[in-house]
């Protein structure tokens, strides 16, 4: 977490607690600018020795609901007799890819590497 004197300045451009050359201090100021431009606000909750939480609040919009309905209304082509080889060295990613493709109707072969 950050002490109050640091937390109060983290949205300032180029503010950093890092040594020279270790960071530009633009990250949170860019986030702040984007959120403000979007009509939202940023809240920082920080306690030294405990951690920091940065929350971004955006205004509600009906556009998302309209886009979501448009996507849901489109027909999704399902696989038929196709077989897909999923090659992924990260098991958690491979499992998700396999589940997604199997749910779409494809037969899946899996490998953890090109050699396999």
TrEMBL record:
Alphabetical list of InterPro entries matching this protein: CheY-like_superfamily, HATPase_C_sf, HATPase_dom, His_kinase_dom, Sig_transdc_His_kin-like_C, Sig_transdc_resp-reg_receiver
Keywords, ordered alphabetically: Kinase, Transferase
UniProt cross-references to SUPFAM superfamilies, sorted A to Z: ATPase domain of HSP90 chaperone/DNA topoisomerase II/histidine kinase, CheY-like
Pfam family, one: HATPase_c
Gene3D superfamilies per UniProt: 3.40.50.2300, Histidine kinase-like ATPase, C-terminal domain
E.C. number(s) listed in UniProt: 2.7.13.3
Keyword Metal-binding: no
GO biological process, one term: phosphorelay signal transduction system
Catalytic activity: ATP + protein L-histidine = ADP + protein N-phospho-L-histidine
Domain Response regulatory: 83-116
Any one GO molecular function term: protein histidine kinase activity
Domain Histidine kinase: start-end pairs: 1-62
Full protein name: histidine kinase
Provenance organism: Xanthomonas perforans
